[in-house]
Amino acid sequence: MQNPARPASDVHAASRSSGVRAARLAFVVPAGVALIMGMTAGLVRMGVIDMDAAKLSDAHAPAMLFGFVGSLVVLERAVAIRRRWAFAAPLLMSLGALSLITPMPVLVGRLAIVAGLLVMLLIYRVIWKRQEAVATSIQALAAAAGLVAALLWAVAVPFENVTPVAAVFLVLTIVGERIELGRVGGLTARGENVGLTLSLAVAASSLSSVVWPGVGHAILGVALIAIVGWLLLVDVARVTIVSTGAARYMAVCLISGYVWLGVAGAVWVVTGEEGAGIHDIVTHAVLLGFVMSMIMAHASVILPAVLRTPLPYRTWFYIPVALLQLSLAARVIGDVRGLDPLIRAGGIGNVAAIALFLVFAVTSAVLALRAAASPERPADPKKEDDAHA
Question: Are the beta carbons of 280 and 333 closer than 8 angstroms?
Fold first, then answer.
């Protein structure tokens, strides 16, 4: 029976929104499974989970980078342009990553990810035709970097060798998003062009790390430090860090992410070519310290846009953020000192932080939906009189 307190138009709108939410959730679920697969693979690689799973272990980075984060990024873009064919991109990337642990040839999954990134570039073409913007150029450059990494991987270049290029896919995507939001904070056209120049330098130097190991890694480190310095100068986070509530929470996440990206750059500058420990430090400083901090910062914006589900800020969001930073710091110290127990403890903390954030996010969203669905309480006449007075 229809609630008499709610107009029929509101009931219809709520029903339609629920249908859209359910349809889009079908594209989010494979990304979530890829996240679980990637985290499990990480624990296997560190010896936390004792099992012989070579395919799962090898799928760790691709599952996290392309199957989870990459597919969510392109899903948000597909929602924005409202073209049915665009939704093939997140499915190709997430399902391609999931296929890596099946009996199918690994080439099938790798080519699916390549195809997903090609569709992503077509999505950016549509966005560019609607409005030419520097931010779109940088995000398209990011997708091109991801495509190059996936193509090299598809022709049997080890993923460890192309990880810097693949990581740039996510780094520059986030840089483009921060430029979009920077306009609100007064970012000028000249400032945007500086960001574009630095982004081109990051993309080019990531390729140099593949063809010119050692020196190329150091050059990439310099480029990352430069773009971090620029972001800290132009991002509104430098102002909102002294505010309160959601604005301050986002600023804490953003600045934490920039610090970790700077750490990755500094490590590459100092060490040049990667060793096993250096690879672990840099990869997780970028993909967990930077990218995951950014996801935690932007979740309250991304979820409503993709699933039409509110995600209000809650004070307890700081708990997984703090756990992520502390566990990642422990992991880095473990890598530097060669302390395997500390590396494993840090890795378990990383997984716990991500899982806890997801639990908190779902809880916050459910509470918000319940509040929105509850009948509105009748207005207090006395309060209305006071308001009019």
Answer: no
CB distance 43 to 80 below 8 Å: no
- Which position has the token pair 């102002």? 239
Domain assignment of residue 74, yes or no: yes
**Measured between alpha carbons, how far is 332 from 85 in angstroms, rounded to an integer?**
42
Mean pLDDT of the residues in the chain: 88
- Summarize pLDDT for 167-218 with one digit per residue, the tens: 999 999 999 999 988 776 678 889 999 999 999 999 999 999 999 988 999 9
Q: If residue 291 lies in a helix (H) or strand (E), which one and from where to where? A: none
Report helix angle 318-337 to 293-307, nearest 10: 140
As given in the structure block, the two tokens for residue 56 are: 């799962």
In a domain, 50, yes or no: yes
Q: How far apart are CA 149 and CA 214, in angstroms?
A: 18
CA distance 152 to 314: 42
**How far is Cα 282 from Cα 289, in angstroms, rounded to an integer?**
10
Beta strands in 94-187 (DSSP E): none
Task: Give me 125's structure tokens.
Answer: 């073409």
User: What is the rounded radius of gyration, in angstroms, for the C-alpha atoms of the chain?
Assistant: 22
DSSP state, residue 219: H
Three-state SS string over 176-190 comes to HHHHHHHCCCCCCHH
Domain extent at residue 55: 25-129
Question: Who's near 42: CB < 8 A, 6+ residues apart?
Answer: 60, 64, 347, 350, 351
Domain count of the fold of the chain: 1
The DSSP call for residue 70 is: I
| Closest alpha carbon to 297 in 153, 195, 181, 219 | 181
